[in-house]
Amino acid sequence: MKIYRDLQEIKKPFARAFVTIGNFDGVHLGHQMLFSEVVGKAYNQDGESVAVTFDPHPLKVLRPDGIRLISTTEQKINLIAMAGVEHLLILPFTKELAATTARDFVQNILVDTIGVRELVVGYDYAFGKGREGNIDFLKQIGQELGFGVTVVEAHYENGMLVSSTKIRELVTEGRMQDARRLLGRYYQIHGEVQRGRQRGGRELGFPTANLKLSEEDLCPKRGVYVTQVIHGGKVYGGVSNIGYNPTFGENKLVAETHIFDFNSDIYGHPIKINLLRYLRGEKKFDRIEDLIAQIKLDIVTAKQVLQDAEGEQLFSCEDKWSR
Predict the structure, then answer these.
(1) 40 φ, ψ to 5°?
(2) Backbone phi, then psi, for 296, in 5-degree steps?
C-alpha cells in the first residue's frame, strides 16, 4: 500500500479510482466492509482502490476535550493495508480544512486530485463545513460531476450496531468479548516495557511487564484481564492488571502483565497486549499473602480461558504492527 500525507504527493489522478473516506478509528467490521467494497470494485473494473482519512482525528481538533481513540495512526495504517487497499491518503486535519465546504472538498480533492470514479461511504457519513456533505449531497454532486456513490448500510453483530462509539463504550465497560465481535479482532494496548518497582518478582513471585497508560487515551475498565502478549513474533499467555495497584498505594495508571512461560529481559522493548476477558475489578488487599493467593487463582482461570481461545486466534495475534 502506498501512503500519501500531502495532496502534493499525488502527481496525477489515479486511473479509475474507487474511493472510500472516513476517520476509520479502530478499523472495525463496518470499516472493513467499506474497504472490501472499494477493493472488489477496483479489481473487477481494472481500477485502483483508494482510502482517505485524517490525522489527527477531526474531533481532536474541533473539541477542546478531544476524543479517546481506539487505534493509533500507525495501527490504522497497518490494518487498512491488511484490507488490501492500494493507496491511502492521510490528510492533515486543521481548522482550515474543517472550514472547507463540502463542494470544494469534492471538487478539489476527490475529483481533481484523486480522480474519483466511484465513492463508497458508510450510511451515516457526512463531512465538510457544518457536515453539509451528507449522503443526499454526495449523490447529487456525483451526478453533476460524473462519479457514482455507493452507500454501505449499517452492520450489526449480536444485535449491536458496529460503530467506533459503541466499541469505545464496550472497552470502558470491560466487555472485551463484545468489543472483539465488533472489531473482528481482540482489543489491543501496546507500548514499551517500563522499569517499575519490581515488586512483582521480588515480593510476589510473579514478575510483570509494565506499560504506562495515559488517562487521555481510551483505557479499559480498571481490573484484571486474561491477555495474550505479542513479542518478538511470538504470542504468550498472560494475566494483566490495569489500574493503580491499590495494595501498594500507587498513583500511576499502568498495565502490569505477568507473562506465562517467559523469562527474558524486555525492559525498553515494545510489546502488544490483546485483552481477551475481564476477570475481576481491582482490589486492595490487607495482606500480601492474600494478594498472592488471588493472583494464583487468576492465573488458573486465565490459562483455562486461553486454552479455550487457542482455536480462535485472529490476525491481531500476528506481529505485523512492528513492520
Answers:
(1) -65, -45
(2) -60, -40
Q: What is the DSSP letter of 73?
A: H
Residue entry with cell 470514479: 117
Omega prior to 92 cis, within 30 of 0: no
d(CA 60, CA 82): 26
- pLDDT at position 198: 57
Helix (H) or strand (E) holding 97: helix 95-98
Q: Please write down the long-range contacts of 307-311, taking CB distance under 8 Å and 24 or more positions apart.
A: 309/276
262-311 confidence digits (pLDDT tens): 989 999 999 999 999 999 999 889 898 999 999 999 999 999 999 988 75
Tell me which residue of 108, 139, 112, 144 sits closest to 126, measured CA to CA.
139
Per-residue pLDDT of 131-164, as tens digits, reads 899 999 999 999 999 999 999 999 999 999 999 9
Give 121: exposed, middle or buried? Use CB within 10 Å, 0-12, 13-18, 19+.
buried
pTM, rounded to two decimals? 0.90
Q: Which of 158, 187, 162, 191 is nearest to 175 (CA)?
A: 187
Distance CA 127, CA 139 (A): 14
Q: Which three cell numbers stand for residue 25?
A: 478509528
- Specify whether the CB–CB gap between 216 and 68 falls below 8 A: yes
Question: CB within 8 A of 147, min separation 6: which ones?
Answer: 110, 111, 116, 117, 118, 119
Q: Taking 60 as the threshold, does the pLDDT of residue 313 lie above it?
A: no
Residue 314 reports pLDDT greater than 80: no
* Cα–Cα nearest to 125, from 113, 137, 116: 137
Q: Which residues are catalytic?
A: 256
